[in-house]
Design a protein that fits this description.
By secondary structure, the protein is α+β, with helices and mostly antiparallel strands. It has a domain of about 45 residues. A hairpin with a 5-residue loop joins strand 1 and strand 2.
Amino acid sequence: MKLIVSLDRDEDGVWIAECPSIPGCVSQGSTREEALENIKEAIQLCLEVRSEQGLPLTIETRQVEVYA
């Protein structure tokens, strides 16, 4: 399964990874690489839980560029 992940750095320097198409699927790491590895694990766990609960595995999301 191919999913889009957002990766941002917070004010403390921690990398936050989120998978917008899986509600509540967020992880973090002290490096980009660690955050990406952690979100992969979080995605697997979230998909397992959603499957067990009979929820849709993902929700529809779209990426849109906005110029301001």
